[in-house]
Queue: 4 jobs
Job 1
Amino acid sequence: MLPQEIIRNKRDGKALGDSEISFFIAGLTEGSVTGEQAAAFAMAVFFRGLSRGECAALTQAMAHSGKVLNWRARALGGPVLDKHSTGGVGDNVSLMLAPMVAACGGFVPMISGRGLGHTGGTLDKLESIPGYNTAPAETLFARALKDTGCAIIGQTGDLAPADGRLYAIRDVTATVESIPLITASILSKKLAAGLDGLAMDVKTGNGAFMTSRGDALQLAQSLAWVAAEAGLPTASLLTDMNEPLASAAGNAVEARNAIDYLTGQHRDARLHAVTLALGVEMLMLGKLADDAHDARARLTRALESGAAAERFARMVAALGGPRDLMERPDAILPRAPHMVRVPAPRAGFVHAIDTRALGIAVVSLGGGRTRPGDAVDHAVGLTGLAGIGARTEAGDALCVVHARTAEGADVAARTVAKAYAIGVAAPALASAVIERVA
């Protein structure tokens, strides 16, 4: 078999056999398939799609391109659970949800990714914490998980390595939005992580990769089918991404927002709704609660008692970060030297937000990537983001831009200003959680 013939077959709309897919993914892992060939394959799949069977074969091939973790052998003492989001702006849910579920008796070995396109990445947010190791040795990863109940890391070299390579290529070749590639990428990592249950956050709206509700539902169904084929119990929520989820977008600023959430200093309402809803699904998948009401009560107690914040602090310390992060976040997290308010042009209400434009503004500040391997400025971003329905007076801040340079701050501020539509009457507000897809 030749990689170029497999690409040609998919380019011409032919179905690929399991052996062709396995061969291509093995080559991608070993290096005999080049980056150019992987990019061509991704583009062919983007335009031609994959059948359910092809998608399942691709997922399994990528999951088994490296090591598959076996947590049962380690006798953790509870279910191994995880959550995945399809990506959005101001989506820092993982940072709070993992320690909340851990405080309720679950174990969360979360294999996360970096930013894709206009969306932020959990790893980039955690790497804004000095010393935090997102690529620990397996022994450290396992010890952190057993001791704290949660450990959020990136793909190591031997965990779904084929996906790690394809993931970076998709980011810079305009092939991120392919439903089969998203499905295979997400589930290959989760299958390699050895989970007992997975909650999915499938986002839809102008800040999501799946902008239409129909596409988001199709993705949720694709994930459910392929996960079922692989024997992984899942539940999916469709959530709204027509505005940022948190009031912050960027790396260190979202880490700071997560600390405020866990300590109770500030909790954005929409962020809280999505975090609790996903936590309920995880506890139910792990049989850690009698019903949804009980699950919500347990998660709330984990927050209010400080148990979730304590788990997060322990996880950070266990993976090399500072032990006093929760007490001194402003002294520890990086801060940008230039801060610029973006004023509202008139009095009224926020009617609509071009959420993708806000994500692009963060990328333009240096908070994201335009090429694989680009360095990220962890300090830059947006804070105090006004949400849809917020009342404004002329000159009120729609947000504050955190930038490395004055020029960069001004450019981002103009982008943000254009992203906001101000109307006279208060708009109807959409629920952050749209529907559940079993």
Job 2
Amino acid sequence: MSKSLIRNRQTKILATLGPASNTPEMIEKLFLAGVDNFRLNFSHGKHEDHAERVKMIRAVEAKYNRPIGIVADMQGPKLRVGIFKEGSIALKAGMVIRLDLDKAEGDETRVNLPHPEIIATLEPGAFILCDDGKVRMQIREKGADYLMAEVISGTKLSNNKGVNVPGVILPIAALTEKDRRDLTAALDMDIDWIAQSFVQRPEDVAEAKKLIAGRAFLMAKIEKPSAIEQFAGILDLVDGIMLARGDLGVEIPAEDVPIVQKKILRMVRNAGKPVIVATQMLESMIESPSPTRAEASDVATAVYDGADAVMLSAETAAGNYPLEAVSIMDRICQRVEADSVYRALMEASHPDAQEDASDAITVAACHVANTVKAACITNYTSSGSTTLRTARQRPAQPILCLSHSLATSRRLMLSYGVNAVYTQDVTSFAEAVQMAVKKAEETGLAEKGQRLVMTAGVPFGTPGSTNILRVAWVE
């Protein structure tokens, strides 16, 4: 890894690939502009297209000798209305519309709702939202295979618009048949993370975890109110969390979203797992070369909240200014992290050390690094657990992660402050210290005369056995 590739920030950037960023040249430019990880959206595109993108990313990774994480985002069940005779219908408050399973084209009196689970679950008084909440209806009557709904707000409903049903757990599996095929294909492409959509309860992620069988890390997308209610159980089973605020903001009141964001980020950080804040971060940059002040504040808030990573969706996948979006996100992260208030917030919210030697040594390493003004904190890790413990503390120093596992190196690139270096295995602690000093200097994380703090587990190759702390000089 060259010195020029060390980011001047600890928060990571995850960018989505799409029509605006599908070429090797653009992927390389996005990487050089600050992208640490790439997201492949399996809601769109064929498997061959995604496999080609993976090859392009891996070519950039090889060229710059720096691990890059790849997230495969599963589509999940998509709840949508059917189609209309005229393509859309006009709505007025007070209108009553029949929602049924009949696949015939709809009109102002009836709409095809091809989801028997919704019809079976909803009761009179419940709300149903369409088109990202622009249309709001309340159920007035229920039959065996239909619902009668009164329009509360909204002026238009067109073909195949999305449906949200707040406040209920739908008896729908989070993994569709398409997701299973996509999951198998993504694992065969050697991606690093699977992002699972439509998670409502712990059982949903347990099934995905079983199918993945250790071939990738699993993150749950939090976009349903039921997932918030059962969050502790979900968090316990997954390797990371994506806070997908788009659908979530439709199903819970908008004023609750910032509070939920803060609570979830705190819980995930305490668990020592990476958390991504996603959706509509720089939305206006799809069509504008600069963001709104509100969007800049939104990215900054996620950084102040201690997010491991912030995400760009359509901004880089289909927008007119993908490079500008990455650059401004990079600059916002740097400015926030340079603020004394940010560092004070990170220091004030250190998670307590867990009652085991590995965590105690990791916490001590962060204190020692501050005391001796170390240039970086270095971990030698095989499973990644040592580095995740360090990232959990949100240290002021960058984290140099040395691993003989390329898969581990790539997966850790999503975590706060981690600079992962794939290196050959070592057999002794003395050899590990020499390797750490050499790589710290090569990457530019430390210079001659500076110190680094190193943690590792002896015997080597025993996952989760951090039991040594060492201060070393770069000579």
Job 3
Amino acid sequence: MAQTDRALVMETVRLFMDAVRSREWLGALESNREGLDTLLRAMTSRVREGYAAEADLAKFQAESARVQTQLLRARLDLARSLAQLASLMQEPVPLRAGQLTEPALRPIPAGNPAELAAKAAAASPEVLAARARSARAAEALALERARRVPDLNVAGGYKRTAGFDTAVAGLMIAIPLFDRNKQAVAIAAGDRAASLSDVAAAEARALADALVVFDAAAALGALAARVDDELLRPAETVRTAARSAFREGATDILVLVDAERVYVDARREAVQLKLDAIAAALEARLLLGEEIVR
């Protein structure tokens, strides 16, 4: 796959992931706001009945206002991502958030990451272009070196003068006493050396970039497979316990607010991690020239 095609695919993937990320974040915030609204009504009743301090109600109101601000930003981010994605895909009508399907985790390419990175680097468009320039420079150097040897010219002819037929043949060769094409050879040799350095630099950059991609795909994929058990479910357990304690009147309001924040942040981080893992796996496969199957 050409470098421009791969860049276009990755740009499409990035915009799609941004749109899905914004949609999921918006959904988490809306769910959080609904829960806060319920708790806020309960806290308002407690304050009115004298069972809770107005300061605790103010904390809930401040948290609710903060969530409202985040909701606005999430809606704007989602609208921007959908508009950019539709523009890139040349869609005639605006995209809707409901059209987006959250992709499933994809397996990374099988094999040793170092060997896969070396294979991807060897097929990198940047490396292939550098090698082509180096081959052209090698041919130019060979040509200039060949020009140091004089060309042998053969001449021949026939003429008829005063009734006599005459044949003429000759050999011509230039004797290079001073001009041995040294300047042109030196320039071509310098271009060849520079092209070899460009190839080495391109290979080093491509290998380093590929190693980062394959290592990231492996690490993100392994962590994304465990994120629900290690991050999301514990945060949900903490929030459920804090809400239950609040309903029974046996918790500090700050504990509940903090539990709500922890859960929302955990949900956002889980979605972010999964999308990053998917994008890294796709990029790794693109580096190997594999097709992306939906």
Job 4
Amino acid sequence: MEITLIIGELILGLALIAIVLLQAKGTSASVFGGRNSSATYRTRRGLEKTLFNLTIILGAVFVALALLHPILIRL
């Protein structure tokens, strides 16, 4: 059971890294004082919105699994 949880966390972690790296670059550069510091708001559409939602879901599942890991290995 413990090996399955560790492999699941590893796969989720790698998938989360891949999804974050696939997202558009420079979307938050203005927050840190980048060259283009004008506050522009834009709507996510299509694949960008899907990647954003998938990032939130994978992150939530990863955190939940990490928090439940000590409880689940005792079962």
